[in-house]
Amino acid sequence: MIRQISKQRVVYYVVFLFVLTLAAYYVSSAFSDSPEASLLIMWSPALAAIFASMLTRRSLKAIGWDPRPVKWLAAGWILPMLYAIPAYALVWFLGLGDIPNPTFLERARLTLNMQASTNVSVIVAAFFFITLVNLIPAMVFSLGEEIGWRGFLVPELTQWVGFRNASLLSGMLWAVWHLPGVLSVGYGAMGTPLWYRLVCFTTMVITTGVVMAWLRMKSNSIWPVVVMHALHNGLIQTFLDRITIDTGKTSYFASEFGAAMLPFLFVLAWYFWRRPLQVEDDEKKSLG
Known about the structure:
mainly alpha; disordered C terminus; 11 helices; globular
């Protein structure tokens, strides 16, 4: 009975998500320069989750609003560091990209009012500004996605098909959901063939989705994955990408559309994917 209800909820969620995402992209195409348009797209999973919950009488408390224990928030902050920083360090060490980008340093000095500071001081300050000070504003965007993907979909899929399948299926759906942005509005790095960007990005999203599914189920809270999602975007898109100098082939390795992060993500995803029973047991306890 529980599996049947969860299956029904997943189907409703996917239908609502499809309709709402199409509507959001339609609005975005009409107001392409508006930040509100991007916010609407990123909040379409949350709206789909709310509508599906109302239709199937799923309590909104099941989203997982309790941020405790705090250690899982720290895990959400640390995890992107484990795959992003080593990947970019390898890119710089092998000469596949260079550091630091003078344009980044110039803008960071103006933003942080550090005109007389050394390059190292500016880089360190920019890192903590992006990953700590700017984290809460970034969470406004990531919260919209995570209410849907990990707050609603992952727990329901886990009830229906088990954690291992749920972590993979949710990551696949998450990747497909991103495709209109990659294909139609130019989201993503340029300089590489489209098929290459799609393969790298899709693999990155699915493996990241496995890690985030585990974190959501293990913590019984949405907030660790909201932190992880926001930190992932800020660390990679706003810091590491911008501090890196393109040496010709950099786009094949750096960014979410390159290959450098994939080996590190595969290791993390495999590590967490191998622990489904422990996660499921914890979730059953939380459901009473």
